[in-house]
Amino acid sequence: PVKPKTDVGPYYFYTQSNLMKKRGDIPKAIEFLRQAVTRDEGSVFLKNELARLYIQHNDYSQALRVMQEILSKNPEDVQSVLMMASIYSTLNRHAEAIAAFEKALALDPESQRTYLLLGSEYVKDKVPEKALALYRKLTKKFPDSFPGFFQMGAVAAYLKDYPLAEKAFLKCLEIKPGYE
Predict the structure, then answer these.
(1) Each residue's pLDDT tens digit, 14-54
(2) 56: which DSSP letter?
(3) Which of 126, 109, 123, 114 minimizes the C-alpha distance to 84?
């Protein structure tokens, strides 16, 4: 890369980071993005991008550190809360992942994706009853949610509630008749 003669600002380094990422040089991409962040410390966008690069580089401790920094100043940034929850989930820190997904759902109760992620985390944490209750709430709120009914059916079958599982799976077929 060409060295700038003057300080060109954060987005020069952001662009260089993207070029390095496209070339597959993640460590160099991280280096450039860290330079961008130092030039715009308040940018949640740049910090989220940096955390994503750390995740891509399998450096979850650094990604977690960046997310904690973001959330200390922006505790209600839903995308950051979701990323933090996903990092905790990847690290098998289910209680922390659940708390973060619950917070994200409270911040954005219209997100079907967050319902599904939280339900999945309940299953991983071996509390399928909570997942089932959450999927019931999801499908009541979003009566055409194929993934909601599908997950409800799967958890109901796991809990041996076969009539509910059948009802949920039949609803899936009603929503998507051609589904196989």
Answers:
(1) 999 999 999 999 999 999 999 999 999 999 999 999 999 99
(2) H
(3) 114
- Which residue, 165, 172, 166, 167, is CA-closest to 145? 172
- Predicted TM-score (pTM) of the model is 0.86
- 3-state SS, residue 111: coil
Please name which of 25, 24, 49 lies closest in space to residue 35, comparing C-alpha atoms: 49
Give the distance from CA 177 to its chain's centroid: 30
Q: How many CB atoms lie within 10 A of CB 133?
A: 15
Instruction: Give the tokens for residue 106.
Output: 């409270």
Ramachandran area for residue 26 (φ above 0: left; ψ -120 to 50: alpha; else beta): alpha
SS3 (DSSP) at 75: coil
Which amino acid would we find at residue 136? R
Q: Using an 8 Å Cβ cutoff, are 14 and 46 in contact?
A: yes
pLDDT in tens, 61-87: 999 999 999 999 999 999 999 999 999
Q: How far apart are CA 102 and CA 81, in angstroms?
A: 10
